[in-house]
Amino acid sequence: MIKESEYKKRRDSLVKKMSDNSIGVIFSAKYTTRSHDTQHPYRQDSNFYYLSGFKEDNAVLIFLKEKNRIKTVLFVQKKDKLLELWSGERLGEKKAKKRFLVDKVYSRDDFKRKFKEYIRGKKTIYCELSSKKSDVKKVLELTKDFNAKENIALMVQKMRLIKSVSEIELIKESIAITAKAHHRAMIVNKKDKYEYDLQAEIEHEFKTNGAYSDAYTSIVACGNSANTLHYIQNNKPLLEGELILIDAGCEHNYYASDITRTIPVSGQYTQPQRELYNLVLETQLKIISMIKPKVKRSALQTSAEEMLTKGMIELGILKGEYKKLIRLQMHKKYYPHGIGHWMGIDVHDMAPYKDAKDREIPLKKGMVLTIEPGLYIDKSDKSVPKKYRGIGIRIEDNILVTKDGYENLSSAIAKSIDKIEAISFKF
């Protein structure tokens, strides 16, 4: 777990970046409506959680910076027995003051009055300028005469780019649970089952290991369904001889995992499946081996596209001269997405890919990213040899950038054909 001292360190680091005579404000997430009067389970705003570790709604963090003085104030939902009867116990002001290393804690009811007091004499406000939160609109109205407004969300997202030791440990814990889920999917009997049966097995493993939510809606795509990149219907039968693309990861203690494996329904890959699978796997292994500080993601992307293009020419999927195919980006028909993304509190972590001067940010020690090449060949594509049609393959791992290279945080999850076939149920 992350200590309160680390959250305080993050807040102090943020305030140091603010100008003198300024105020910063960031709001918690609100409950979201599922339908009518029912709500989705509450999930804290990622930036707010990163700065506080506070999991309740109706909260606000205020940062005050003067020339020789810094002050942090937390507003929380006050204790209310009737409200708690319906929605659960609240920490309240007194317990929040004991737990969190902030200067002051007030009831959320006092926010508007205190905020008007705090903005006197301030020149700059740091708030979530791009947010659609109604509270942000109210704050901007109260500070409409301020000459300078800065986006505090972007500042926090930049901080989130480099993971601390404790964050990396939480990501590892999340991945360890996800590993059990993917191995369970490989092991179980899939005869006469549906995609949703396998999804249930995966998410059962999440919850029984303490991860009460998935990091994103699980993709369990059998056969041609895998060629829809964001397929989440998960309602088709698992057919013998087909592959299942499983993109599933849990969220544990607010940190995500994001793993994809492509496994055979009947326990063994056919020869065409092996050929495509090994091309994707060899590409992934090569790209992962390139990871180290100062390398750019664009270089990883380019290398993946080049390797997949060469492989597809050899298999007869792409036809023509290599350089021309690359120039025309013909690979995008079968590999349309990026090589990976940042990962952390969000599965697609809200951290920048470019700096303030629009220059690509190179890899640095402490970054965590996914590496996920794939090939997707629709069953209706008659330009491709028939044996490859209807096959979709993606292989995805979570990689930590280290001082001299990388660590594959998800290396324990079976990935080679031999290992997957060795543990898969066969019928």
Keywords:
35% helix; 19 strands; six-stranded mixed beta sheet; three-stranded antiparallel beta sheet; Creatine Amidinohydrolase; Creatine Amidinohydrolase, Chain A, domain 1; 2 domains; alpha+beta; 427 residues; 13 helices; globular
What does this protein look like?
This protein is α+β, with helices and mostly antiparallel strands and 427 residues long. It has 2 domains: 4-159, Creatinase/prolidase N-terminal domain (Creatine Amidinohydrolase, Chain A, domain 1, 3-Layer(aba) Sandwich), CATH 3.40.350.10; 165-423, Alpha-Beta Complex (Creatine Amidinohydrolase). It is 35% helix and 19% strand. α8 packs across α9. The chain is globular and about 70 Å long. The chain starts with a helix and ends with a helix. 39% of the residues are buried. The mean pLDDT is 97.
Provide a concise account of the structure shown.
The chain is of the alpha+beta class.
Helices and strands in order, then pairings?
Layout: H1 4-16, E1 22-27, E2 33-35, E3 38-39, H2 46-52, E4 60-66, E5 69-76, H3 81-87, H4 92-99, E6 104-107, H5 111-118, E7 124-127, H6 134-142, E8 148-151, H7 152-159, H8 165-187, H9 195-208, E9 213-214, E10 219-222, E11 243-248, E12 250-252, E13 255-256, E14 259-264, H10 271-289, H11 297-315, H12 322-327, E15 368-371, E16 374-377, E17 391-394, E18 397-401, E19 406-408, H13 417-423
Parallel strand pairs: 1-7, 5-6, 7-8
Antiparallel strand pairs: 1-4, 2-3, 4-5, 9-12, 10-11, 11-14, 12-13, 15-18, 16-17, 18-19
